[in-house]
Design a protein that fits this description.
Elements: H1 13-23, H2 54-57, H3 68-82, H4 87-101, H5 116-127
Helix pairs in contact: 1-3, 3-4
Length: 130
């Protein structure tokens, strides 16, 4: 388990970040009853291949309308904010995200339209190959 130095002992970083996601309307987590993470419940991706309904997830996902930049800003405010890493690492990730990933054209791409070729173009541009 990835420990969270800013949270209670024995609680992983993802468990600590969940309330932040939930509070900001990010309903893409499956709410499972305590002690029922394994085996996966029937009817869910990873068990028999079925996709969970929006109702099961707590609402419709919003990824389709979000851009890469919007998602990264959400990630910085939630997951990165409570991650078990040094402040210097958190600062570096924030700077790299804001400088290289969030600006257009890459940051303006909607998540549901992001393609491997977009990532290749970003890497080529960063390496000076484009």
């Amino acid at each position: 388990m990835l420990e969270n130095r800013n949270g209670p002992p024995g609680v992983g970083v993802y468990a600590c970040a969940y309330p932040l996601y939930d509070e900001r309307g990010w309903p893409n987590s499956l709410k499972l009853p305590r002690g029922q993470k394994w085996p996966p419940p029937k009817g869910f991706t990873g068990c028999d291949g079925a996709t969970p309904s929006a109702e099961c997830k707590g609402g419709a996902g919003r990824d389709a309308t979000r851009t890469v930049a919007e998602w990264l800003a959400q990630w910085r405010e939630t997951t990165l904010a409570v991650a078990d890493c040094k402040d210097s690492t958190r600062s570096l990730y924030t700077t790299l995200s804001r400088k290289h990933l969030e600006p257009a054209p890459f940051g303006a791409i909607q998540l549901d339209r992001l393609r491997p070729s977009d990532i290749e173009a970003l890497i080529d541009q960063s390496a000076g190959w484009a």
